[in-house]
Amino acid sequence: MYDLVIVGAGPAGMAAAIYAKRARLNAIVVEKEGCGGQMAQTYEIDNYPGFPGISGMDLGTKMKEHAVSLGSEIIYDGIEAIEKTEEGFKIKYESGESCETKGIVLASGATHSKLKIPGEDKLAGSGVSYCATCDGAFFAGKDVAVVGGGDVAIEDAIFLSRICKSVTLIHRRGELRGAASLQESLKKCGNVNILWDTVVESINGDFSVESLSLRNVKDNEDFNLFVSGIFIAVGITPVKNEIDGLMCNAAGYILADEDCRTSIKGVYAAGDVRAKRLRQIVTAVADGANAVTSFTEDFR
Questions:
Q1: Active-site entry in 35, 134, 248, 260
Q2: Which of 61, 69, 182, 203 is the Cys-Cys partner for 154 at CB 3.0 to 4.6 Å?
Q3: Is 248 a catalytic residue?
Q4: Catalytic residue at 219?
Q5: Alpha helices (runs of H) in the chain, residue ranges in sequence order
């Protein structure tokens, strides 16, 4: 019987592991793939205090090393099911093994929705980005594109317009879906151009993004756009955590306040899987600390 099982080894999970060990909890981390989560896919991070210019992989490694140095154990396996028991929870791994625990920190994160087009995976981190606030500064003075039509895409275009030489917003429909106030702000950006009724067919370049192959969906015309970077903002999907009674919003994010307590006693949500306004490394780390603090208050 563990005190706490932390699901996910991204920044939220690693922070939870560190705080759990400092609280002398018998805790483990369960991770299906590798430490770092989405952070590990980021070429360079310039907004995490104390580590300007560090790669996401290196920052994830440092967090892992910190947690392991305190005695944290990481089990590399997937979660097949989580069941409520009289004493807490039973977790079944995909490997067939299982464990029991008093509490769970769900830090399984979320994944950026992809365009699923040629060149996207190849040039990820080399001009293909899913986070303008994370990577925008690296494209200062350059021509970039943003794909999407919702609030995030509009916010990204506005943010990038202050940094980049030009921003082309590419949207597959004839009107944006974002808030009217955001659209008004977008219109005031003199270096933003909108390509309506347009989709990206491929992202081109040998070692970094050089151009985009585009198609107008109305007249079926193909053309190219030369840019140094493309920011894809077509949605984000939280990793599913199916536990009976766990309340989520319509988009699938777990409902939890800043204390990270969910609708189920003993279950806490931390990081990108939690419904909140800002999803960044620094807020994920804060969630991990809050989740463990709430657990210690509830069970000690």
A1: 134
A2: 182
A3: no
A4: no
A5: 11-22, 56-69, 132-135, 151-161, 180-187, 281-299
d(CA 79, CA 77): 7
- Looking at the DSSP assignment, which residues form a beta bridge with residue 215? 199, 222
**What CA–CA distance (Å, rounded) separates 227 from 57?**
26
131 is catalytic: yes
154, amino acid identity: I
pLDDT in tens, the chain (300 residues): 999 999 999 999 999 999 999 999 999 999 998 888 878 866 678 789 999 889 888 999 999 999 999 999 999 999 999 999 999 999 999 999 999 999 999 999 988 899 999 999 999 999 999 988 889 999 999 999 999 999 889 989 999 999 999 999 999 999 999 889 999 999 999 999 999 999 999 999 999 999 999 999 999 999 999 999 999 999 888 998 889 999 999 989 999 999 999 999 999 999 999 999 888 899 999 999 999 999 999 997
Angle at CA of residue 119, ends 115 and 123, nearest 5°:
105
Amino acid at 223: F
The catalytically annotated residue of 135, 156, 272, 287 is 135
pTM over 0.85: no
Q: Which position among 3, 35, 131, 287 bears the catalytic label?
A: 131
- Distance from C-alpha of 288 to C-alpha of 13, rounded to nearest angstrom: 6
